Amino acid sequence: MSENLISIRVWGDFACFTRPEMKVERVSYPVMTPSAARGILEAIFWEPQMYYVIDSIRVVKKGSWVSFRRNELISRVSLDSPRTIHAGVGAKDGDFTQRNTLALEDVEYIISAQVFLSDLGKRSGQNLNKYVIEIERRASQGKCFHRPALGVREFAADFQAEPDPQAALERRAAEVREDKDWRAIWPEEDLGLMLYDVFDHRQRSQGFRWLTAEESEQRLAAVAATTAKPPKRKPKPSAGNGLPRHEGVSIKPQAAFFHAKIRDACMDCHPERVGIIANP
Fold this sequence. Notes:
By secondary structure, this protein is an alpha+beta fold. It contains seven helices and twelve strands. The longest helix has 14 residues. It starts with a strand and ends with a strand.
């Protein structure tokens, strides 16, 4: 097993991995997407100096389909002018509506992912093993940055670190199934086109982090020292005055898909083994 490979077992009462082709009503994929798996891992632990690449998703419990109604927002927050959110006002009363959701009930998965250093981590001389140990320690103790979710925030996920994903699959199958056969959980199925992620993993490898006010001032001073006319007064951090606010690359969302197949209760997700189809 690779030294940078980690495995986390997650489970919950409900899950909804929304299909993007459904415009209004939420309809879940029959299995967790790599994007949702990455979100769970980043909820447990994430630093700008590292990033995750999902290797595989093993299915312990497929779950059963369940349909219910939920209150959802009609309008979306503007990224260009999110003044109402900054003011703490929130959504208006008329912005809510009831929509149907086709979700999964009683699911359990084992996520395997590789941990890599981003360009920020490589430039700062970080140790990859340090992050792997930290992830496993936090998952073993039930610690997280924010509560992981199975597709949507309302469906909270419990989690536990597993040293061997295949051994964990066989152990859990023996515990929850009458036939104790892990292969019978999901023998084989072609799921067709599935959402892989909304962010390109190759761009995420560059890393991104916001600079502190002190770091911004230091970089501005370094730039001013190389110019003939330094600025008369120190500008405040903003998006349009040229003051450096972040390090790395800010990634724009771009949906990517892959041909999902399950064999022996395992879905291969590694981008080097499955063909990634970028949305033009």
